[in-house]
Design a protein that fits this description.
Strand order of the largest sheet: 1-2
Distance between the termini: 26 Å
Largest sheet: 2 strands, antiparallel
Strand content: under 5%
Number of helices: 15
Structural class: mainly alpha
């Protein structure tokens, strides 16, 4: 029993219990129950759960394996684009078919496709479907893209970087360069993904046009909670046992692990690729709740924010990553959404929409200097505090 997975990871049961109670509580308080919290806030909570999932992935690759990736939000965005393409195509197809149904002569498949293309790409001055949209009409294939594209990109990038034994700050710069290159490409109108306009209207789920947004938002909240729970269990298994010991040893002393005969590159590539796939899944759940995705979501600053969340929560602790992401995300929504009252100093009025990033940066510095174990470290202190 002492060697069982649960015995090695007691936080798993506590986390799943807390997540389950939280899900039940939101359901009761939502418009489907007591109508205490609004549909928009349910969406905010669902998006927060998705951010917690990518924060866990970031914690595994950085806090446990020692790879400071400044590009994991790119994988998150790729997952969002993959599902967003199907959502836009299917929704636009329905609109086009309804508008053409009044014609005396039924439209040909080519005319239908041209009309769909004009609706989607007219904003960038085109009507032709790019190669990237080859599978946009298939939900199954686009769901595969959610997993395959981030996974293959991470696999190729990681193989090239790790086999060259690029480590430390140089690896962080490479991941940031990859993210910047991808973002700059997506900003172009001829990228095939509508340039700076991005993909919009993703909250309108094809086939559920008559379903209230309150019901749809709750369904996505459930899906996000399920994904977070499964992701937590998956990564708890990865970082426990022999594999977890090797991963943490790579973080602490990579040269010694290599000297002991372990193929360090394989472990790092496995962690990097797996976390990229989970990040893509988190993005695929996040953006239908956000309703829009554009290249700014993939900009390098987003991945830096992700590292800040993990640091504030406490890296090297899965629950710490969840705490950090949830805390900063909800606080950000409160400050930037106008919830925080302005502070009138007489000679100057502090508007938190302008000062939130400064406060976040200051918090990161304070945590780094005085609380290196983050918020999660406080729980360790309380649990291990001698009686």
């Amino acid at each position: 029993m002492h060697n069982s997975f649960i015995a090695r990871n007691p936080s798993v049961l506590w986390f799943l219990l807390a997540l389950g109670l939280f899900t039940i509580g939101v359901t009761i308080l939502s418009e489907a129950g007591l109508s205490v919290i609004s549909t928009s806030f349910v969406k905010t909570l669902g998006k927060t759960l998705c951010l917690c999932l990518i924060a866990i992935a970031m914690d595994v690759v950085w806090g446990y394996c020692g790879i400071l990736s400044l590009g994991h939000f790119a994988f998150f965005g790729i997952g969002g684009y993959a599902i967003g393409m199907w959502l836009m195509y299917a929704r636009t197809e329905g609109i086009v078919l309804d508008s053409l149904s009044t014609q005396v002569i039924p439209p040909t498949p080519a005319e239908i496709e041209a009309a769909i293309g004009n609706q989607i790409f007219g904003v960038v001055g085109s009507s032709d479907f790019p190669v990237l949209w080859a599978f946009a009409d298939s939900l199954f294939l686009q769901l595969l893209m959610v997993v395959l594209v981030p996974g293959l990109l991470a696999l190729v990038f990681g193989w090239l970087a790790f086999r060259s034994r690029v480590t430390g700050v140089y690896l962080s710069i490479l991941t940031q360069a990859m993210t910047l290159a991808l973002a700059l490409y997506l900003f172009q109108n001829d990228s095939g993904l509508r340039g700076n306009n991005g993909l919009s209207g993703l909250q309108n789920i094809p086939g559920f046009e008559s379903t209230p947004q309150s019901t749809i938002s709750l369904a996505f909240f459930y899906a996000s909670a399920l994904a977070l729970g499964l992701g937590y269990v998956l990564f708890a298994w990865v970082v426990s046992g022999k594999m977890g010991s090797v991963i943490k040893a790579i973080r602490d002393d990579e040269a010694r692990v290599r000297f002991l005969g372990y193929h360090v590159e394989s472990y790092k590539l496995f962690v990097f690729t797996l976390t990229a796939i989970v990040a893509g899944i988190a993005g695929a759940l996040y953006y239908p709740q956000a309703g829009i995705i554009n290249p700014t979501e993939i900009a390098p600053i987003a991945s830096i924010y992700l590292a800040v969340w993990v640091a504030i929560g406490g890296r090297g602790r899965l629950y710490g990553a969840v705490i950090g992401a949830a805390f900063v995300s909800l606080l950000s929504s409160w400050f930037t959404g106008g919830g925080a009252p302005a502070v009138d100093l007489g000679f100057y009025t502090i508007l938190w929409t302008d000062w939130w990033l400064v406060l976040l940066g200051f918090s990161f510095v304070v945590v780094t200097l005085f609380f290196p174990k983050g918020i999660g470290g406080l729980f360790d202190y309380l649990v291990r505090k001698p009686s």
